[in-house]
Every structure is written in structure tokens, then in C-alpha cells.
Amino acid sequence: MDAKVAKKLGLKERYALMTRGLGWDTSYQPMDKVFPYDRFEGIKIHDWDKWEDPFRMTMDAYWKYQAEKDRKLYAIIDAFTQNNGHLGVTDARYINTLKLFLTGISPLEYMAHRGFAHVGRQMRGVGPRVACLMQSIDEIRHAQTQIHSMSNYNRHYNGFHDPMHMIERIWYLSVPRSFFDDAYTSGPFEFMIAIGFAFEYVLTNLLFVPFISGAAYNGDMGAMAFGFSAQSDEARHMTLGLECVKFMLEQDPDNVPIVQRWIDKWTWRGTRVLTLVGMMMDYMLPKRVMSWREAWDIYFEQNGGALFNDLARYGIKVPACAAQAAIDKEHVSHQAWAVFYQYCGVSNFHAWTPSPSEMDWLSNKYPNTFDKYYRPRFEHWAEEARQGRRFNNATLPQICQVCQIPMFFTEPNDPTKICYRESVYKSEKYHFCSDHCKAIFDHEPEKYVQAWLPPHQIYMGNCFPEGVDPTMPGFNALDEVLKYYHINKGRDNGEFVGSEDEKNFSAWRELAGKN
Amino acid sequence: MTVVAREKYEFAPKDTVDKFHGAQLLYIGWEDHLMFCAPFCWPVPPTMRFGDIPQALLAPAYGAHPDFAKIDWNKVEWYDSGSGRRMQPDVNKSIAENGLKHKDSLRFRTPGLDGLKGCSF
């Protein structure tokens, strides 16, 4: 008699059993009560099984891949640390990009972890639940590997010491923070469009390529390694975001206008946040990768254009804000660096004027705008600094109610005029940097009236260390705000030239080649 | 539009005038002077004389600009930022008497002074 040997399961069957096969419908309570969040946004899902899993990954394979990547990553970090790799970067100015990343981006990775855990819990379909679970674990791993990679710099340089404290307090960090808080407090489908699609798919290359290529170009093996270690995760995240948007669009035609509105909103929200990246690329990297404008051309206009062509068959249009972004791409990085140059006394990293050769690079990359509008500013400030009058701004700015960026953006048709927009809601006035931020507010004013705007909070008296009495003689508001931020005045911030970071880097590098 | 939510979604606005210890917020921007990257925000007592704004608020904020000392305050033009409407403030009356409310936003133009190097800087 022939023995009956059970056939080994194929990848597809094993995947089906280990993901979708694990779910069941609840019996004590109706499914609508157990999953109360996946219907209220108006998105109609008729068949969750139509969800396609692009990666077909099960947890055993996931842990195996991630463990392998971590082993490589930590070997590189160790080598970098033991060899004093920080002294091999192009210039100590570069290190300020890492401070921006650590305080502005890494905390968002952690919030993405929480967000995807929440969305995974709330979607009743098993396919997206498993995909969200893995992305959630990826995101906390990214937060941790970034902190580990950059902690070596904390031993030697100023401003790295307290990112999780700073993200909740420092004025400009309210920009990335409010972006994520906005997404995190929306429903699960909007979160998927906000983070999974607009951020991870449409805009992610504009964040990761500049930072990680920037690290590679500037000799930072540590940061480069965490970027590469995250890269295969990012590919999975992009696919999840795209699958999610297609799934929503295919399930019901009523979903299309809702999805379109979210795409419009989150593409603009993301574009505003990425202003910080543009500034980093054009001004903070001593060895530049490409200009912000070039990156925008390639990653948004070309790649994003192809994506929106693909989505056109569902009735999705290119977001309305793309036209303004196409104008802004020649201006925002210069305008943003001017902000950080003058407000570096209250930020957690240093600022400087570009050197003459760097200005020539900018002229070349921005032939329509740099010489006409921006070079004269930086030349004036450089001259003022030479005369001992380094320009600083200590008065708090008006900021946008939605993106929370100081209102430095100019009118789309006139780069010499600040763009002012406003709305009145329930007798209270609100101000915006652009038509698109105003439109976002006007659609959901009840949400944005709650915004925690740093200048207003300072004036309310909410941004001083506990126990400080603003009515006491000798009270210095600025000093107390910096203490509340955990910024060491003059060490962590201010002008780069003459800073402790600059001096130490140069002294240590010299020592490294001497006896 | 209202927020699409599972429950009633209504919250008190965070920045109402009662939170500012008797002051109201006033925003002011100087047209054609982009050395100062954005308009400024100040808490001001509603009783402040409009004519005191230049010395009390603007001089400490804008004084570093070479144009500031040259301003003839009788010739300055004031505008409501949002509507762009020209205003004719009475410098001897208070901010409140001039009709300015919490979070009003103004811009001022200084004819003949349009920043450095021909780039509204």
C-alpha cells in the first residue's frame, strides 16, 4: 500500500492560512460594535476579501528579514562609532541636518507606529490588518534605529539630547507634529490616505532620498546605514498605501470624492512640511545631492504625475495644490532658510549664511529666482555679520492656523508680497499662509480651532518652566522659553560660525591626524 | 462643513481673548521688507494708543532695518491684511476705539521706502 504523504503547502496557501485564515467574525458582540471606526467616514467597503496583499508576508519571514537587516545595521553603527566616524563627515554644518531629522522626523516614526497599530486594530478586513501590523512594527524600529544611529553624535555635539521633549514644545517642531496629530486624530481611512498614501507614496522620496543620499554624500555612514536598512520597509509601505487607495476606489464610486478630498488635503499638508527638507537640501548639506527644485521635478512632477495618470481611470485628479507647489518650488527653500537664519536663537540647531561658492551653486540651480530675490538677502546678512551685527529676530511671528508655519510664504504671483488669507468662524478670526491651508480649515474648522500654536501659547504663559513667575523682577521671557524647550542657549543654537560644535569638530579633526 | 465624526464634535477654540491676561493679539507686517520673514504677533492692551504702536511694538522688532529710522509716520498707509482694505486709524484713539479686535491683522506700507537692493528686502 502506498503511504499518503501530505503535500507541502505552497507559499500562497501558507500565506492565506497564516494571515486571512486567522480571522473570524465575533459572536458576543456584532462586528459593527467591535470595529466602530471603519464606517463613520463614509467609505463604503462591500468585500474586504478583494484586498490584494502585494507582499504576501507572514510573521516568520518578517522577523527573519528584519533581524538580518538589524544585524548589518548595528555592525555598521558600531564600526562607525569605534572609528570616530563623525570626524569624517564633510563639515560640522552637516551635523545640523541630523538634529533636524532627530527632532523633526524620528518622533513621527514613533507616531506612525501608533497610528498603524490603531488602524490595524480598527479595520475589520484581515488583509489590511496584517499589513498595518507589520508597518506598525517597522515604524517603531525606524524610530529606534534612527535614535541609535544618531546617539553617537549626542556624545560629541550639542542639541541632540532631548528630541521627544522638544517635539511637543519647540515652535517649528509644531509643524511636523501637528501634521501627524491631524492624521492620527482622523478616521482610519483618512489616516491611510494621509500617511500611507500621500506621505509614504507620493512624498516619501522627497524625504528619504535627500536625507539618506545627503548622508552618503557627506560621509555619514551611520545615517546612511539606517536609511538603507529602512529602504525595503519603505517599498512595502508605498505598496500598502497604493493598494489601500485603489481598494477604496474600486469598492464604491461614492468613495471617489472623499478620497479625492483627502488626497488634496494631505498632498498639501505634506508639501508644506517638506519645506524643511527643501531648506536642508539647498542650505544645510555642505556637499549637495541635488537642488530641492530638481528633487521636486523628479519625484513629484514626474513620478507623481505618472501615479496620478494611473489613478485617472478611477476618476482621481492631480491635487489642485500642485499648481501652486510648482511655483513655490523655486522659492520655499530660500525663504525657509531665511527664517531659520533669523530665528536660530530659538531653534535647536545652528544656522549660517551660504558661502560665495554655495551662492553660485544656488544661482545655477535657481536661475529664475536666486539672484533676483534671495542672494541680496544672504549677502546683506553676511556683510552685517562681518561688521559685528549678526541679524537676529527675537519677535514672535504670526503663523498659519493649519500648517503652523510662520507666514513667510509669498503670493503665488508676487514673491515680494506675503500671502495673507483669513476666515472667520463663530466670531473668531483665523489666519492662513495660503488658499490651500484656508480650504482645509474651512472644511473642518472645528478641528483646527483647537490648534496649539506656539506663539499664542507663549503669550498665554504656557511655555515657561514650572514655578517660574512672569511677574517677578528680572523675568526674561526668551530665556525661560528656551529653558522650557530644554535648549541650552548659545550652545545648542545660534550662529554656526564660532559655535562650540564648529570649534570642537575642527580641533578633534586636527588631533586625529597628529601625535 | 462640520467634522465627520462618530460623536458630537464641538470644542472651544484654543486662542480666545480671555486667555491673554487682559491683552488681545495683534498681527502687523511691514510691506516690502522681507528681511523680517513673517508678520509679527503681539499681545497688546486694548487701551493702547494706536499712535504708540511704532515706538512700543515696531521699533524693537523692525529697528535693525536701515529704512526704519527714515519712516515718516504721517505718511504711513495702513491696511487690513485679510481684505487688503485701506484703514484710516486715529492715532490718538486706542486700539479698541479704532475698531481692532482680537487677532486682527494689519500691514503697513511706507511709501518711498521699499526695502534694500530692489528686492523688497
Short descriptors:
heterodimer; A: 515 residues; mainly alpha; Ribonucleotide Reductase, subunit A; two-stranded parallel sheet; two-stranded antiparallel ribbon; 6 strands; 59% helix; B: 121 residues; mainly beta; Ubiquitin-like (UB roll); 5-stranded mixed sheet; globular
Report on the architecture of this protein:
With 515 residues, chain A is mainly α. Chain A has one domain: Orthogonal Bundle (Ribonucleotide Reductase, subunit A). Helix content of chain A is 59%, strand content 4%. Chain A contains 22 helices and 6 strands. In chain A, helix 3 (59-82) runs antiparallel to helix 10 (221-251), helix 9 runs parallel beside helix 11 (255-273) and helix 9 (188-217) runs antiparallel to helix 13. In chain A, 47% of the residues are buried. The N and C termini of chain B lie far apart (39 Å). A 5-stranded mixed beta sheet of chain B has the order 2-1-5-3-4, with no helix packed on it. Chain B has a single domain (24-109), classed as Ubiquitin-like (UB roll), CATH 3.10.20. Chain B has one helix spanning 53-62; strands at residues 24-30, 40-44, 77-80, 86-87, 104-109. In chain B, a hairpin with a 5-residue loop joins strand 3 and strand 4 (86-87). The chains are: A mainly alpha (515), B mainly beta (121).
Break the fold down into its secondary structure elements and pairings.
The complex is a heterodimer of chains A (about 525) and B (about 120).
Chain A: H1 11-18, H2 31-34, H3 59-82, H4 95-104, H5 106-122, H6 126-156, H7 163-166, H8 174-184, H9 188-217, H10 221-251, H11 255-273, H12 275-284, H13 292-311, H14 322-328, H15 332-342, E1 350-351, H16 356-365, H17 370-386, E2 410-411, E3 414-418, E4 421-425, E5 428-432, H18 435-443, H19 445-448, H20 454-460, H21 477-485, E6 494-495, H22 500-512
Chain B: E1 24-30, E2 40-44, H1 53-62, E3 77-80, E4 86-87, E5 104-109
Parallel strand pairs in B: 1-5
Antiparallel strand pairs in B: 1-2, 3-4, 3-5
